[in-house]
């Protein structure tokens, strides 16, 4: 871990890519971003949009594992978008730089304003997102940069998933990670836009309650919702990751859908 006094440079995927992040403030990427990236299982040439990308951890993780993926990082915060640009320019990321770009944009924009901001209709095969997860009842952090990344707004999933549906080609895949209590809002927001919803609960250990959910869905699908087997993070009695989760975390494997749906060209 190195960098300037106000930042760190952190290695992910066992050094396959590096990320510039704010030091001691703001949202710092970790396991959530790596699990989100693992949901994109597509070896073909595809365009991937990372909504609310922050410093770009999830999008860069997709580009690191999938050499045919072009990734666009969409971020509203000018400061976090700058960190993402710094990440792309790192010498350690030279092998990814030509396939990853950053766009300053608010993903809740609609219609013409959304298109003008670079969130172009029907232009992505995959859309990934790790939306802000703190609701109004959560204690707010005094860190303004972190608060912006974590604070949930009214109709958040409706607005984010609406944008995902607009910018995705028919048959494209939505992937997201969220808290379990958001499951109803996510399903409602998918509505008629997305079907074939697959949900996986993530549990810290056997017998412990879920702390996150992984969700994938296909634009235009009419397939029914399914609950997948739970994903257990740690081996019993330890903080060590299970072998499968460790593979996801380090970019050695993808968490493919049960019902694969070909992405239209």
From TrEMBL:
GO molecular function: N-methyltransferase activity; nucleic acid binding; S-adenosylmethionine-dependent methyltransferase activity
SUPFAM superfamilies per the UniProt record, alphabetical: S-adenosyl-L-methionine-dependent methyltransferases
InterPro entries linked: DNA_methylase_N6_adenine_CS (IPR002052), SAM-dependent_MTases_sf (IPR029063), Small_mtfrase_dom (IPR007848), tRNA_Adenine-N(6)_MTase (IPR050210)
Protein's GO biological process: methylation
Source organism of the structure: Rhizobium lentis
Domain Methyltransferase small: 34-182
Keyword terms, alphabetized: Methyltransferase, S-adenosyl-L-methionine, Transferase
PROSITE patterns membership: N6_MTASE
Cross-referenced Pfam families: MTS
Protein name: tRNA1(Val) A37 N6-methylase TrmN6
């Amino acid at each position: 871990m190195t960098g300037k006094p106000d930042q760190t440079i952190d290695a992910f995927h066992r050094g396959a890519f590096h990320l510039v992040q704010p030091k001691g403030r703001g949202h710092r990427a970790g396991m959530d971003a790596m699990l989100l990236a693992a949901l994109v299982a597509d070896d073909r040439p595809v365009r991937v949009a990372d909504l609310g990308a922050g410093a770009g951890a999830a999008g860069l993780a997709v580009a690191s594992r999938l050499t045919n993926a072009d990734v666009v990082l969409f971020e509203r915060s000018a400061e976090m978008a700058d960190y993402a640009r710094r990440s792309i320019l790192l010498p350690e990321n030279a092998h990814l730089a030509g396939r990853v770009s950053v766009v300053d944009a608010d993903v809740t924009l609609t219609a013409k304003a959304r298109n003008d901001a670079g969130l172009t209709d029907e232009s992505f095969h995959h859309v990934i997102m790790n939306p802000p997860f703190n609701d109004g009842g959560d204690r707010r952090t005094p860190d303004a940069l972190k608060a912006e990344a974590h604070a949930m707004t009214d109709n958040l999933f409706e607005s984010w998933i609406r944008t995902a549906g607009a910018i995705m080609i028919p048959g494209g895949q939505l992937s997201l990670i969220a808290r379990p209590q958001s499951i109803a809002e996510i399903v409602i927001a998918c509505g008629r836009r997305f079907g074939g919803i697959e949900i996986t609960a993530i549990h810290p250990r056997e017998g412990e309650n879920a702390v996150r959910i992984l969700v994938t869905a296909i634009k235009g699908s009419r397939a029914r919702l399914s609950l997948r087997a739970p994903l257990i993070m740690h081996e019993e009695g330890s903080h060590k990751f299970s072998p499968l989760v460790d593979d996801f975390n380090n970019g050695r494997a993808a968490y493919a859908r049960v019902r694969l749906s070909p992405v239209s060209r």
